[in-house]
Amino acid sequence: MNAVKEPSFRESVDLMFNRAVALMDLPPGLEEKIRVCNATYTVRFGVRLRGKLHTFTGYRSVHSEHMEPVKGGIRFAMGVNQDEVEALAALMTYKCALVDAPFGGSKGGLRIDPREWDEHELELITRRFAYELIKRDLINPAQNVPAPDMGTGEREMAWIADQYKRMNTTDINGRACVTGKPINGGGIQGRTEATGRGVQYALQEFFRYPEDTKAAGLSGKLDGKRVIVQGLGNVGYHAAKFLQEEDGCKITAIIERDGGLMDEDGLDVEAVRNWIASHGGVDGYPKGKYIRDGAKYLENDCDILIPAAMEGVINMSNAANIKAPLIIEAANGPVTAGADDILRAKGCVIIPDMYANAGGVTVSYFEWVKNLSHIRFGRLGRRQEEARHQLIVDELQRLDAHLGDKWVMTPNFKQKYLRGAGELELVRSGLDDTMRAAYQAMRETWHSREDVEDLRTAAYLVSIGKVATSYRALGL
Ligand code: NAD
User: Fold this and answer.
1) pTM summary value
2) Which residues contact 429 (CB under 8 A, 6 or more apart)?
3) pLDDT for 255-308, tens place per residue?
4) Which mutation among 103, 150, 314, 367 tests ligand 1's pocket best, with the greatest number of atoms within 8 A of CB?
5) Which CATH architecture has domain 194-359?
6) What dotted CATH number matches 39-187?
7) CA 149 to ligand 1 center in whole angstroms
């Protein structure tokens, strides 16, 4: 039997935090102030459904208010508990600081299996939960702004926004009370794909540095890399799809709730996703090798492992068997602190959650700004940009005609160059820039300090440093 106890999710976050602050020189007391969760609100409410009163338990935790509003998703899952919500809220504080999103950290959760309820029932439950949080300002555009997480998406965010509007009819900024809304409900282009897109941008940035690639025992670019992904939900699906379609990666295994699929020749992400949508799981998919204990495939040989489902899946019981030289934590907390020690000792490079899945909060930040400014990004400048480009194209065409067949414009150049940036292009550009800048800050700390062995510690050092600066500015 293993004598060393597996740390809980919150203990893992605290252990990783402690490892980083031991390398910092924070004033006495500030370390504790940053680490602890400021407040967690627990609510139990009843909803009459199917002729019976059902009681539900939900949480909203505020980790740090050094910047307001605080930000963090709302999760619907049976495993939700106070410990988990507090760990996730702490991660949000560090994540927002790392990517310069001007928010404190928060997180919410409702203990429910969304698959057990039909849409109308879920709406009643979500609205009632939102009501409880709104009346305590735990949902508010200036104080606390939720977003989607596991088990929630655009639909739930639209219900929450509408509930807020009903309770605050004159708040002109009401739509900014939640992000991840559908486009016609005040959302922003590119939010649904944002977290997976951020994972793709993070990997692209990692592979721009041969020194970092080499540290993971890899070489070359993303093209042809063998990837295993766990969880084909919002984050895992988009990450795997973009890596396959745009970067030439081969998805050699997909692990879902009901089992895993493996095909060394590569699985078609879109086809597997469609299969899950119509069959409820990966079982029966006509290609690849299916096993019921899908988590076994985490241990397969591959270049990049993407856990994108839930926390604690790589732990002290399987860490030693993990063969991937590079893990990117698309989910929050998929590697426990105990597993992290084992993997680091083996030389595995881990791109940590607080950075890897920060694409979601980054685009949420853009959505919040859009809601407060009441104007779509690109609306003012797009046509003006196109008109200026037209001037250049006209001039080039004039030269083209003058020079005859000595000089011919590349096909498609005109069409591509003329197109001014719309909201989606601007969002992707802002996200890419954010992911690159945050990675550069982490790697600079990783490589410039002898005492920093890994990217996670580097990420904590950068983000805790920023939170500490904010607290100092507040006079603490
Ligand atoms: P989701 O509910 O859309 O998808 C989760 C997927 O994982 C589902 O397909 C589910 O069937 C699968 N799954 C659940 N348990 C599993 C298991 N034991 N083994 C294999 N697969 C399993 O959730 P999501 O929004 O994609 O979130 C996934 C992770 O990413 C969570 O840790 C979440 O906190 C994190 N995250 C999400 C966002 C976001 O914008 N949605 C942002 C940052 C971080």
Assistant:
1) 0.95
2) 421
3) 999 999 999 999 999 999 999 999 999 999 999 999 999 999 999 999 999 999
4) 150
5) 3-Layer(aba) Sandwich (3.40)
6) 3.40.50.10860
7) 7
